[in-house]
Amino acid sequence: MEAERWAETSHNISCGILYGVGAGALWGLIFLAPEFVPDFTPLQLAIGRYLAYGGIAAVMIAPRWKTVCFRLKRQDWHSLFWLSLFGNMLYYIMLSTAVQTGGIALTALVIGFLPVIITIIGSREKEAVRLFALLPSLMLCVAGALCIGWRAIEAPGATSQSGEGLLYAIAALASWTAYAVGNSRCLIRLNKVSAHDWNLLMGLMTGVQAILLIPVVFLCGHLHHEFEQWIRLGIVAAAVAITASIFGNALWNCMSRLLPLTMTGQMILFETLFALMYGFLWEKKWPCLLEIMAFTFIVFSVLTCISVHQKQASKLHGYTTNSSKN
User: Fold this and answer.
1) How many whole angstroms separate alpha carbon 135 and alpha carbon 250?
2) In the chain, how many H helices and how many E strands?
3) Where do the domains of the chain lie?
4) DSSP type of residue 62
5) Angstrom distance (rounded) from CA 272 to CA 277
6) What angle do CA 264, 266, 267 make, to 5 degrees?
7) Which of 179, 187, 309, 317 could form a disulfide with 6 if both were Cys (CB 3.0 to 4.6 A apart)?
8) Per residue in 107-118, pLDDT tens?
């Protein structure tokens, strides 16, 4: 029985990591979206993306609507509202603004600190890996983020807007931290709702929030664009909605049910890695020494975190096996 439990734990960690890598690869694409439509404001881009997300989610969940709603309580709908606001709408507006004002590298730097914050929060959970054991992983993560930050500050293209971009990136960091922790706890609590359906429900909620924000766009102006530009925005918004919101979020939710919060934080590093790689491809350049060092630190940070969790699972298995023998 214990052997089966140990095998299941190892399987969950392996599958969870694969889901995390997939989510990071798809989420990394959102850093490029503002570069494709620079003439539009982050609010317009966010509304376009989440209108598409909500519309697709509505079509996909329609056949199971009554069954899924029956399994939700009022508390769950409140959670959906706040998670949609912090994890989708607010986060994406702040992130897009940070990219447009501070650049991809600076934004990726700040978002790269997400694992540190989430891991610290997760270490306070019951039966979590001790924070002391995770310190090597966290230090490697910080080292990688600092390498990216130093490169962003010293880069020839650094602008006077870097300070403003930093503030928006920090706001995005705080917003997504609240989402990651809250979403993980909701998924563990709602075992009768699939991770896929939870993602679709969040898409519906975010779509409603996007509709409510449309009047704000008209009040702010910035609507004088060519027809071709609006078509381009629609294509980019739909592409991001399908890749990052539908598929990326679904993979992340599956991962959140398999991994503890102390590992969930580390998985967001894959978004940073892929965002940097996409940025290099977009700018058609090779990474410099500092950027290569950042990649190395981040990869070893994730590997160290995985090793710590596997060792704890192994010790727990050995303890329970010895206890049963005695």
Assistant:
1) 30
2) 16, 0
3) 2-325
4) G
5) 9
6) 65
7) 317
8) 777 777 777 788
